[in-house]
Every structure is written in structure tokens, then in C-alpha cells.
Amino acid sequence: MSESPSSSGQLQVISKADTFTTRLASGASVYVSLQHTLPGVSLPAQPGGRPYITLVFARALAQFMGDISITDEGFTASLSFNHVMSEVTIPWRAVFAITDGNGDGLLWLEDAPASVIASITQPAAPVPAAQPPARPAFTLLAGGKN
Predict the structure, then answer these.
(1) Are 88 and 44 spatial neighbours (Cβ–Cβ below 8 Å)?
(2) Cys-Cys with 1: which of 13, 18, 43, 135 at CB 3.0–4.6 Å?
(3) What is the pLDDT of residues 31-43, one digit of tens each?
(4) If you compute the radius of gyration of the chain from its CA atoms, what whole number of angstroms results?
(5) Can you give the pLDDT at residue 11?
(6) Alpha carbons 111 and 53: distance in angstroms, whole number
């Protein structure tokens, strides 16, 4: 669960299930980032490389999505992977971010992989100061006219 300040200044706990349900109901695209190597995650194939993947739920992709069932433990959905419908099971403990197409959303740091935490907590590399453009070199030619 993530915490967010309420209008009274008190922290409120926001559940992943509520966040996912609300964003799906809004009709906007929903991006669910999760650690695919955790127990209970069922995908048609384990992606290599990074320790996490992002599933995209969007109306524009409706032909690639089937039923979605959301519970307090996680969600199951029929999704298309390489144009083949597959059942996925995702426990909430594997989910660490739920965002929309604009990047607005929530990040649950306690569930995020170390590489994600490091990428957001490291200070950005300083941008080198802009160098003035080099002055063109001119050569004075003998016999030229003023």
C-alpha cells in the first residue's frame, strides 16, 4: 500500500487494487509495472533482461484483452502476447507501480526492485555548461582587397 496526503494533511493508505480499478474505470491507459520473477506471477513466458516488466491495459488494445478479475490478493486477466491470448495471474505483492499514459500514478517503494529505486534516488548527472561556439579561424591572404 502507498501513502498519500489527504486534504486534512493526514496520510491515507491507497491500495493497489483500488488504484488499478479506478484507473481502469477511467478509460485511460493503465500501465502496471511488476517483478515477474516473484512467486505467484504467471505469465506465458518469462521475459529476460530486467527484473520487471510493464503490462499495458488500454481501450485501444481492447482486441488484445479479455476478462479481468480483481481481488484483494491480485488480478487475473486474459492478455495478448505476440497475438496469442494467454491467462496471466499477478499477485499485488509483485506490483510496484501503476501509472497512466502521462506517467501520473503511484509507486510502492517497498515492492520496487533495487534497480528502480536506485534510478530514482540517484542524483541526476550534472549537465555540462554550454560552451560558446568556436570562433571560425580566418587566414589573411596576400593580395586581397579591402
Answers:
(1) yes
(2) 13
(3) 999 999 899 999 8
(4) 24
(5) 60
(6) 14
Considering only the top CATH level, what class is 2-115? mainly beta
35-69 burial: b if 16+ Cβ within 10 Å, else e = bbebeebebeeeeeeeebbebebbeeeeebbeeee
Which letter does DSSP use for residue 92 in this model? G
Which residues are CB-neighbours of 23 under 8 A, at least 6 positions away?
30, 98, 100, 105
The x, y and z cell numbers of residue 67, run together, are 476478462
Rounded Cα distance, 79 and 85, in Å: 5
pLDDT digits (tens, 9 = 90+) for 56-80: 887 665 554 668 899 999 999 888 7
Q: 127 is written with which cell numbers?
A: 549537465
Which residue stretches of the chain have pLDDT < 70? Answer: 1-12, 46, 48, 59-66, 122-125, 130-146
pLDDT at 35: 93
- d(CA 62, CA 138) in angstroms, rounded, equals 64
CA atoms of 4 and 106, how far apart (whole Å): 9
The cell numbers describing 129, all together, are 555548461
Question: Taking a C-beta distance cutoff of 8 angstroms, is the pair 79, 55 a contact?
Answer: yes
